[in-house]
Amino acid sequence: MSADLTRLGAADLADRIHSGDVSSVEVTQAHLDRIAEVDGDYHAFLHVAGEQALAAAAEVDRAVAAGESPASPLAGVPIALKDVFTTTDMPTTCASKILEGWMSPYDATLTSKLRRAGIPILGKTNMDEFAMGSSTENSAFGPTRNPWDTTRIPGGSGGGSAAALASYQAPLAIGTDTGGSIRQPAAVTATVGTKPTYGTVSRFGLVACASSLDQGGPCGRTVLDTALLHEVIAGHDPRDSTSVDAPVRPVVRAAREGAQGDLKGLRVGVVKELHSDSYQPGVLASFDAAVATLTELGAEVVEVSCPHFEYALASYYLILPSEVSSNLARFDAMRYGLRVDDGTMSAEQVMAATRAAGFGKEVKRRIMIGTYALSSGYYEAYYGQALKVRTLIARDFEKAYEQVDVLVSPTSPFTPWKIGEKVDDPLAMYLSDLCTLPTNLAGHCAMSVPSGLSADDGLPVGLQIMAPALADERLYRVGAAFEAARGPIVA
């Protein structure tokens, strides 16, 4: 029975819990048992909060027994939380030695929403340190492994959340997406991940990497599960100055409608600049097959040009490190976190020694790049120019959406590579985000849905669906229709 429960989707589990067919405690315990059984092979979790999760589950069961309405459509369904959101009852480390063991005095808004929705939090998932990376190899606590092939990466920075889903350790997960950190892990683990419109999910209590790019979002094994979670976590938050004061988009309704398989009247744009011969052949073949499926579903497919997308990578890797340089200055060894001090050191020496010991190589690399880009005499030449390119990319999107309703591309140019294969070549690692970066720079929304397995190596490939800001429901309509037409992905 326990194994069966871990194979069920979140929507199905919610129905069974709310009808009394199964208890939330049973479902939560089944997933905790699964974590204990297999996570030694995958290292998806940094911290497991079994006692707290079971207590939250028991409260849902009490409400069901009393005949009370569920706190949310997902009440009782457990979740894995990326270790970049603050939690008062378990450590928040951002997978960094500088925050090892740190207990936050407050919950992130997203954490609080999960608790109020009656969703038991199984624990905190592994990630690239401070969300900087595309492979989850930059974690100070060791890499996560892809359940499809444990010699390979699960994507990043949210590889722990994606691996937890793919290995049936959790039916739902939360990630964050700064340049693709929800979508790229989803693509390489055959799961679903959405980057919502910037500002529609609160960033209060999300430990900042790059504040103008970071966005929390939902992850699941199906489009409907992901939509249900999206509606739970979205909404205006006065504590987040960048929060959008707008109604939550009807993404669940869109997912249910899309599953009927009719895309007649929908205009789909294939982005010419995100379809290159340099991409892995199996990825391109899977993408072309996905586009053919959209056509069969009734969509009108046209090619669209976004000429400034070719500069997205260069722009992003100036804007992000610049914001990292500013945001990570708060880790000064004076207020919280690691402190390296032999008792004879000045404050400046303590800061330097702590940062040297506490930050990993990739974090240091980005801090140094960003500090240089912001330095006197170089600001306009680097950061200023990158902001201008960002504007041009946003204008490319605007022109494209005058012609089409959604845009599509491969999520990542490559299937998951071997652990260790690219650690000494940062640029090769950065190239895995080529297709996902433009959406973050524009603040729009995008989703990755599994498109199949590559003929090259039998590993997962993702289809990226992009939509304008505050049109998140379009992602779910298209994603659900494609998912229904595609059918199950079998290794």
From TrEMBL:
Residue ranges constituting the Amidase domain according to the UniProt record: 26-475
Signal sequence, renumbered to the chain: none
Alphabetical list of Pfam families matching this protein: Amidase (PF01425)
An MF annotation (GO) of this entry: asparaginyl-tRNA synthase (glutamine-hydrolyzing) activity
Family annotation (InterPro entries): Amidase, Amidase_CS, Amidase_dom, AS_sf, GatA
Enzyme class: ligase
Keyword terms of this UniProt record: ATP-binding, Ligase, Nucleotide-binding, Protein biosynthesis
Transmembrane segments: none
Enzymatic reactions: L-glutamyl-tRNA(Gln) + L-glutamine + ATP + H2O = L-glutaminyl-tRNA(Gln) + L-glutamate + ADP + phosphate + H(+)
EC number(s) recorded for this UniProt protein: 6.3.5.7
Active site: 82, 157, 181
Subunit (UniProt): Heterotrimer of A, B and C subunits.
Family annotation (PANTHER family): GLUTAMYL-TRNA(GLN) AMIDOTRANSFERASE SUBUNIT A, TRANSAMIDASE
Role this protein plays: Allows the formation of correctly charged Gln-tRNA(Gln) through the transamidation of misacylated Glu-tRNA(Gln) in organisms which lack glutaminyl-tRNA synthetase. The reaction takes place in the presence of glutamine and ATP through an activated gamma-phospho-Glu-tRNA(Gln).
Family: Belongs to the amidase family. GatA subfamily.
Protein name in the entry: Glutamyl-tRNA(Gln) amidotransferase subunit A
